[in-house]
User: What shape does this take?
Amino acid sequence: MYWPVPKTFKLALALLPAVLFFGACRPAERSAGDGGLDGGVSVSGAFALYPLAVQWSNDFSEKHPAVRMDVSAGGAGKGMTDVLNGMVDFAMLSRELHEEELQKGAEAFAVGTDAVIPVFSSSNPLRREIMAHGISREDARKIWVTGEYTRWGQLLGTDDDSPIRVYTRSDACGAAQTFASWFGASQEDLTGTAVYGDPGISKAVSGDVFSIGFNNMAYAYDARTLLPADGLLPLPIDADGDGEVSGDESFYATRGELAAAIEDGRLSAPPARHLYLVGKGVPTDSTAAAFLRYVVTEGQRFNAENGFVRISRQTSRSIRHRLSHAVRDGHSRKDNTSKVLLVISGCLLVFLLSALLQWIVPSRTARRVFRQRFSEVVLFLLTISSLLLLAAMLAGLFVRSAPIFETNSLHELLTGSEWKPSQGKFGFQPFILGTIAVTALSICISLPLSLLTAVYLTEYAPKVLRSMVNPALDILAALPSVIYGVWGILMLIPLLGYSLLTASLVLSVMVLPIQINLFTEIFSGVPRELRESSMALGATRWQTTRRVVLRKSVSGIFAAVVLAVSKCIGETIAVMMVCGCLPRRPGTLLEPFYTLPALIGNNYGEMASVPLYESAIMFAALLLLLFVLVFNIISRVILYRIEKQS
Assistant: This one.
């Protein structure tokens, strides 16, 4: 008897050997001595080192075209987390290693020196007096920590009432930690409007006349001219605290002068600091080791060009000696591709076996029954997997957040208002209230606008107008949230500052097209016969809309609002860019605040460095998941009752 071979079996049989071959075989690495390096080197971390690392990677790629270089900034904390998790070869670090990082195998290699300096707006009308007076350690503490100085006149010793608008970093980073350590504090002690990254502080300070902040050298000065960046002026440090910047304290005119002052010790550490590339142990991959060797030798010529101080010959020699004694056994993360291919091979093998079983069944009826039952099993497993995934997420987050309950009760975590991880204080109340406040306000703004717009489009607008508006709404709904965050920075921040109102407006504009599309679909689903019957009984168009269309669509409107609320609760990047990231209860609409998603986005990178930080961030993620889950469950119950009554 001839049994036709199923096409699925032929396809699976053709693909399986190829997948197994590529999964089992890895290309052999070339040693650094071959002169023909290949593979890739990935680097992430501190903004301070980013411009320099880009130049290193570009030059190294020219010398070794087969090597793929990947350099990204995101803060020192993110870089440390990436390297300790095996995601990158090197972390760019702009502070000293913590004990917890050393215990996890972090190995630091000095690659340069720079400084974190206070900056203020070049448009400040008091700039001459400020430059002549400078800022001392005690002045900085009174501005960023205690809040005693709120007016420029207090700093200068005059009666000027111009406000000091203070900016700090929202992301866990080496720059903020170094700057805070200059006056005996830590990053979590710094007050003021918090913005993300060095570029964020540069833009915020340059656009605010009476502002003050701090920047790495690379962002306080223009990379091309080495003069102060457009809109910024470095605020000279009054080292002796006499209220006057003397000649030996005045070295901020160019980045070259500042670098020379760091090199000869006129600017002490902190705010001067060492910059590092950090690996998980000494690099054992030949390409990564070759890149580090290049950085501490040939690559040092870029330091001076960019205003950074070179490392000493002794330091360079020591690093090369450590590299030469490293065991070359490759990073574990290099095996990730093989693991992924192995999983794919397993799935393909199951597919092959199912096709084989169909082939060996002699009866066509039996094969048809087998396919039916096999499809039912697969669909059942896929359905159950979604529930299992949710359960796995809840269980995983709970297990990872459990350590925080050893030192804090649930009541303390939910009602506490202090957020100082280094002191073991994890108060989530400001973040919870901030999340609720921005969600409620954004829905209050967007709901009536979207509802009325959808009513007009479905009931009143001519067809030509709908054909133009609907595609525009689809485009707006598909835009990445970061675009809305940038729009908020450019258009709303100059008017309203970093505040609850700004974040709510950005969020409401972001969900507006989504709600309009949903409402339009819901209203369009109301049968035309109901409208015609209402009009035939003498009702006006508005009465028909209000008493027929809206009443018939109540359950759909409620479901659309639930979807919008869920999106608002979980929105991260757009809110993070404009909220100010100040961990305190929202007071007025024009004050900075903080949300749970922004907390996770800003601080996830630093969790590898501070005790209990990981469990605290995992607990924040668990809270966020529970909020959305409980809200959706309650909404489903209400929606069921609405549908039952209707």
User: Anything to note?
Assistant: The radius of gyration is 30 Å. The longest strand covers residues 106-121. The mean pLDDT is 82. Residues 32 and 286 are 5 Å apart (CA to CA).
